[in-house]
Amino acid sequence: MEVLAQINQRIQKFLEELESPIVSGLFQRIQSGKMLRSKLALNIAGESSKCVLLCADIEMFQSASLLHDDVIDNATIRRSQPSINAIAGDKNAIMLGDILYSKAFCELSDFYEDFPMIPRIIANAVTMLAIGEMEDVELAKEFNADEAKYLKMIEHKTASLIESTAYAAAFLAGKNQEEAKDFRIYGRNLGIAFQIVDDILDITASAKTLGKPILSDFKEGKVTLPYIYLYHNLNTFDKKRLENNFKKDLSKEEQEWILQNLKESGAIQKSMDLAKHLGEVGIEAISNYSCDKLIHIMQEMINRDF
Fold first, then answer.
1. Rounded to whole angstroms, how far apart are CA atoms 215 and 205?
2. pLDDT in tens, 27-69
3. Pick from 39, 157, 30: which is nearest to 100 by CA?
4. Distance from C-alpha of 20 to C-alpha of 16, rounded to nearest angstrom
5. Are the C-beta atoms of residues 7 and 51 closer than 8 Å to each other?
């Protein structure tokens, strides 16, 4: 899509304004994602210079959050390629993230005159994203079996920026406050469902598809939704066994035991059912609008290959 190239060009222009070869060089090493948030905004607000600006800002915020996330998780791979912290060290990855955050906030000022609510919407989302990151770190300290805590964390860490993208784009499209709230609900549900599907893929997809070994989340200290559902389905002895494997390098025997129980317990299907339900609620929220492309985005995201 030509407009996606325009968004990337706008980001490149912003970074060139900084006149820093170090920043430009490192940024070029970041592997581009699917630009889900940009596609979402474009399908709500349409193609315009203001929407391209909004997308460029959102993509910079997203890239910054992933740079920090990789440092926090000690991750060396991002989208099947070496992460920036693996290439240039934690310090450079953190500072590059800070630069992207700061530059994106500066560019948001262009919205103040015509759409004064948009900078506040996006800034609040970035705040929630950081809170979600802190919640994720806290939950990783010990085995968490609380579904509500996990869902609240991913609502902050993953869904907040997707939600705010849909919300801001609705205002950009000329929607009033009540109408924009419908798109906000859609975005929130898309974000939460997106993360749940990612949780499932970490278990069901191949290592080649993931770009990392399966069950990596559990080893890294993330008790995602399928594990929470599994835990509550196990007897006391097996609950202890699952807890003892938390944040461990799993033997082949333990890996097979976990995979077998995840499938037989219905934990994977229960997680998928929740993602589908959230998708249905999100689609229902925008049912009064002509949004076939948004319905397609939700369905495509939930029905990713397993």
1. 10
2. 999 988 889 999 999 999 999 999 999 999 999 999 999 999 9
3. 30
4. 7
5. no
